[in-house]
Amino acid sequence: MSSEALIDIKGVTHAYKTKSGPLPVLDDLNVSVKEGGFVAVVGPSGCGKSTLTRLIAGLMKPNEGEVWLHGARVTSPRSTVGMAFQNPVLLEWRSILDNVILPLEIVPTKLSRKEKEARAEELLALVGLEGFESKRPSELSGGMRQRASLCRALVHKPDVLILDEPFGALDAFTREDLWQTMHALKAKEPFTGVLITHDLRESIFLADEVVVLSGRPATTQYRLPVAFEGARTIDHLYTPEAAEMLNVLRHQIEIAQGRVAA
């Protein structure tokens, strides 16, 4: 395992079985994330980014290679992993508070009902949803539902948070607001993050490093350390440093798409 890496993906190759034969998705993929780090993964559509998240979470096993978490090989789902997706998938028959508490009803815990509610209320207040605990999902906007989904992913204090395009369906203003919320959450609720996104601005605003995957079957094509220093604000996205990083990433995506030569 790589030194200091909390997540270590080593030589992973994977193909899906289809009626017409194997569909190769990942090929000798290597990605590591240090403890407390935040890595964004970008690449062409269909290159296997979401497959990567399922491998880290232990929801599936690779055909070849290994996935390590906390120095142990991942062979089954891990309760130390939280996940948030583009669709918040909140249960309409449960209040927002009860939706957030749901993982605490699944993951073994000694917390009382009152302690579970206090934990959920703490997170909801942190993302600006104080006072909405008793509402149903249909009574909230898309951005508010996604905030609740993030709280649900963090309520059991996971070591790893996987974000699979959680802001992709939101309007630009709401996305930027949630990007800043993510920084506030990470400062208050430390975790090691993996973000899957098609938004290059999102990748450099949220992550410490951006990993570019090649076209399918995907391998690690390029790694870009994010050069921002200190607390980030949206203004960072309008600096020369941001413009340079975005130019590099756009070029790498064009290479991955086969539009330009490497």
Helix count, DSSP H or I runs of 4 or more residues: 7
Question: In the residues, how many domains can be counted?
Answer: 2
State the name of the first-level CATH class of the largest domain. Alpha Beta
Per CATH, the superfamily of the largest domain is P-loop containing nucleotide triphosphate hydrolases
What percent of residues are in strands? 25-35%
Segments where pLDDT lies below 50 for 5+ residues? none
* Overall pLDDT metric: 90
At the third CATH level, what is the topology name of the largest domain?
Answer: Rossmann fold
Indicate the structural class: alpha/beta
Record the strand order, biggest sheet.
6-7-8-3-9-10
Specify the overall morphology.
globular
The largest pleated sheet is described as:
6 strands, mixed
Taking the alpha carbons of the first and last residues, their distance comes to 30 Å
Which CATH architecture of the largest domain? Answer: 3-Layer(aba) Sandwich
Q: How many strands appear in the DSSP assignment?
A: 10
Helix content class:
25-40%
Helix and strand pattern:
EEEHEEEHHHEHEHEEH
User: What does the radius of gyration come to?
Assistant: 19 Å
In short:
With 262 residues, the protein is α/β, with parallel strands linked by helices. The protein has helices at 49-57, 96-106, 113-126, 142-154, 172-188, 200-206, 240-256; strands at residues 5-18, 21-34, 38-42, 64-69, 72-73, 81-85, 160-164, 192-196, 209-213, 220-225.
Name some characteristics of this structure.
262 residues; alpha/beta; Rossmann fold; 2 domains; six-stranded mixed sheet; 10 strands; globular
